[in-house]
Design goal:
single chain, mainly alpha, Ribonuclease iii, N-terminal Endonuclease Domain, Chain A
């Protein structure tokens, strides 16, 4: 599937759910079984500031290929219709870029690549 034809905001919308399911699965598989604790721990990974930091770490490690970097850059340059209420726009755009990466990988049926990147994130 040519994901370059898909709006970066749409990739991020899908990627948000893909990423969140991966995080929730990780937390539950590590024995966290209380909803309040799950929510608190998930925030370490799914909040905009956390996602922005994770994206920076992935970029610093140079583990992303050209297609992944292209999608990240496209999403960082995406102009949303609304402004974030509780975070800086730069942080929001980085978080959106991480989500778009997962959306792209999901649409391309690259489950193994999703797992590789998640493994790196969850170290």
């Amino acid at each position: 599937m040519n994901v370059n034809c898909i709006n970066a905001g749409v990739l991020a919308y899908l990627g948000d759910s893909v990423y969140e399911v991966e995080i929730r699965n990780y937390l539950i598989s590590n024995g966290i079984n209380k909803p309040n604790e799950l929510q608190k721990k998930a925030t370490d990974y799914v909040s905009a500031p956390s996602q922005a930091k994770i994206l920076d770490e992935l970029l610093d490690k140079s583990i992303l290929n050209d297609d992944e970097l292209y999608t990240i850059n496209r999403a960082r340059n995406y102009k949303p219709n609304s402004k974030p209420k509780h975070t800086d726009i730069k942080i929001y755009k980085k978080a959106t870029a991480l989500e778009a990466l997962f959306g792209m990988l999901y649409l391309q049926d690259k489950q193994e690549r999703i797992k590789e990147i998640m493994k790196d994130i969850l170290r």
